[in-house]
Amino acid sequence: MPITLRDVREHELDSVMALNNAAGPAILPMDTARARFFWDHAEYFRVAEQDGHITGFLAAFSQDAPHDSPNFLWFRERYERFLYIDRIVIARPRRGGGRGRAFYADVQSFAEVRWPLLCCEVFLQSGNDPALLFHGGFGFREVGQQVMAGTGIRAAMLMKELCSHAWVAQTYGGRLPDQPWLRARELSGRRPALATGT
């Protein structure tokens, strides 16, 4: 059956949290408050659905989010405008089926009309070479490293410049065409991000 990527629905937050917490040590745990924070503040928060089941999700935040992630804050201290991929989780039995690639193609399409940079990190631990290769294949490059306070985990900070953003910003300013594929999530009473100057 086909895989559908769509915005998460509020009643699915428990399913997202369970999927996150079953992912293993490479993904930071999520509680109810964190899931609610993602719902309220993530500019991009989509799930992969297949046969009526959620099989993965990706959440990303703009530079304006009130996020406390040390890796997010690392980027905010250095870059003015970006979309930060906080996490991508694919259910263990569904890994290797192309969902990660589908999410990254989708989040890039979402981001490039709104932000000049797409950012994320990969934990530098044994066995994570495939994750670094995956991101390299999508054009990400390392722009630094940091050790996360209190964890001892070293992360490679990755960034991709979105080459279409400058053209979109110059052509459309802050007003994108009213098309379904360009619509963004409504976030807690504030307007979602639009294309603006670099």
Offer a quick outline of the entry.
The protein is α+β, with helices and mostly antiparallel strands and 198 residues long. The chain has helices spanning 13-21, 32-41, 70-78, 99-112, 129-137, 165-172, and strands at residues 4-7, 44-50, 53-62, 83-90, 117-123, 141-147, 154-161.
Describe what you observe in this structure.
By secondary structure, this protein is α+β, with helices and mostly antiparallel strands. The chain has a single domain, classed as Aminopeptidase, CATH 3.40.630.30. It is 30% helix and 26% strand. It has a 7-stranded mixed β-sheet with strand order 1-2-3-4-5-7-6, sandwiched between helices. The termini are far apart.
**Number of domain units:** 1
Number of helices: 6
CATH superfamily: Gcn5-related N-acetyltransferase (GNAT)
Based on secondary structure, the structural category is alpha+beta
CATH topology: Aminopeptidase
Task: Please give the largest β-sheet.
Answer: 7 strands, mixed
CATH architecture grouping: 3-Layer(aba) Sandwich
Strand proportion, as a percent range, falls in 25-35%
Provide the low-confidence segments as ranges. none
Q: Cα distance, first to last residue?
A: 40 Å
Using only C-alpha atoms, the radius of gyration works out to 16 Å
Global shape: globular
Number of strands: 7
Arithmetic mean pLDDT: 88
Order of strands, main sheet, comes to: 1-2-3-4-5-7-6
Q: What is the chain-wise order of helices and strands?
A: EHHEEHEHEHEEH
CATH domain class: Alpha Beta
Helix amount: 25-40%
GO molecular function: acyltransferase activity, transferring groups other than amino-acyl groups
InterPro entries: Acyl_CoA_acyltransferase, GNAT_dom, UCP028520
Domain N-acetyltransferase: 3-164
Pfam families: Acetyltransf_1 (PF00583)
